[in-house]
Structure formats: C-alpha cells, structure tokens
Amino acid sequence: MIHQIVSYVNYWLNEVNAHSLQAPFIYNLYTKYIQSDDNRQDFEAIEKTRKKLQNSPLLVTPANWGATSTVHPNATKANVSVIAKKGLTKPKISRLLARLMSYNDSKQVVELGTSFGLNTLYMAQKSDSHITTFEGSKEIADIALTNFEFFERENIELITGNIDEELPRFTNSRIRIDFAYIDANHRYEPTIKYFNQLLKRMHDDSIIVLDDIYWSKEMTQAWNTIKEHPQVTHSIDLFEVGIVFFKPDLSKTHYTLMF
Ligand SMILES: C[S@@+](CC[C@H](N)C(=O)[O-])C[C@H]1O[C@@H](n2cnc3c(N)ncnc32)[C@H](O)[C@@H]1O
User: Fold this and answer.
1) Of 77, 75, 80, which Cα lies nearest the Cα of 58?
2) From ligand 1's centre to the CA of 90, what distance in Å?
C-alpha cells in the first residue's frame, strides 16, 4: 500500500498533458486515443454483465499460481461478487485498450488473465480481431465462456491452464501478435518471462500493455525492466497501466502522461 501511495505521488509530480508533447507520434496517440474517452456507449451491455456478477452468490476455486491480487490470496474458494468488484480491469482501462486496438488496427490479440472475460469482451468488440485469452482457473474460465456465449462472440479463443506452460506452446506457433495485455501473475519473474515470450511474436507496430505497474514493488521492477528493454522504443506510464511500443524509427523515449 505504501509503495502504491509513494508511486502515485511520484506519478502525479511527473505526469504531463498534451501541452508538453511536441513529437507528432505521441501527440496524436495521446490526444486521439488515450485522452479522448469517447467509446463508453459501445460497452453498456458488458457493464450490465459486470453488475450481475457483482451480485452473484457463486463461489469459485481460484488458480493459485503466484500473486494475482489481494482479492483472494491463497483462498480455496473465492466469491464471484468480490472478484467482480475488486479483481477486474476497470472499465476505463478496458475502453483504453479498445481504443489502442483501433489505433494500430489490431487483428491478433493476446490477453493473459481472462477472469470472467469482461475485458476480453471489450477487446473482442473489434469484430475483425481474434483474441486468444489465457485463464488458469477452470471454474473462472467456465464463467467467462458463458459470457462469451451470451454475447455470441466467435472471435475469442480461451486457453485454460497455467500460462507458464500454455503461453510458450502458443508463441511457438508462427503467429504474429498485434496487441497483448498482460494481467495475470503479478510477480517479477513470470511477468518478464511472459513479456519475452510475447516479444518473439511482436512486430514494429505491435503494442504491449502491462497492468498494475505500481501494484507491488515486484510489478514496478518488472515495468522498469520492460521499459529498458532494447527493443522497446516508446513507453508510456499512465499509472494504472504501462504501454510499450517497438517502432524502430523512433528514438527511445519515456512519457508519464495524465490519464
Ligand atoms: C486480474 S485477473 C484478470 C482480469 C481480466 N483482465 C478482466 O478484467 O476481465 C487475473 C487472472 O489471471 C489468472 N492467472 C493468474 N496467474 C495465472 C497463471 N499462471 N496461469 C493462468 N492464469 C493465471 C487468475 O486466475 C485471474 O483470473
């Protein structure tokens, strides 16, 4: 908690807005896709499903691989309602991911950490995209599958199992990934391992978003390592998420932007 407060103060002291941005690439991206939160109405039906889950009486068995959140640490059973209230990507971030996908016209998308599939549904709204999403808990994945069926989404593939084993199998195929969202095992080692595995399948216009970059010291360390990676040219800190780009024609720059 102290780490999060100190990190927020640091972010707040460093954040800048559009007035401070000179380069066309970042100015355009920030003003048109990051700052302009204009796609809320596209996702109202998904938000109704979130409300239902927040009132669900069901219990599920969470996956116990590494830190996921403070919502169900080492619990054998967790309340669906509590996960739906506290353990999911916020709608504001899901809307941002959808806008970033339209920015680089993402077709092949990977999400690490499906949970109930709400964020997946946001991303799958782009009908010419294909989302491969990974979830370790069979019971949580079953709820996600029910949601995908309800929304009649056919552009989602859910892989159930430990990402440590499933992701290398996936990235060993020759797939080209346009967009990846990492929101699963919130520890340093797995996060870096997943980043490096995804990187093999990225191209110059790909984007990776890392969630919860100040959730713990380990996550901040992972974010710092990712930012410094030689293939990362631009990195953007929005406090709740970090975004990285690999465009070879850009010189390495880091931005802390108001969001
Ligand atoms: C924070 S939640 C994802 C929330 C999701 N992005 C959303 O808002 O709809 C993280 C999920 O990752 C899963 N997870 C964590 N570590 C995992 C691992 N090693 N393999 C597979 N799934 C894992 C957890 O079971 C949990 O459901």
Assistant:
1) 80
2) 14
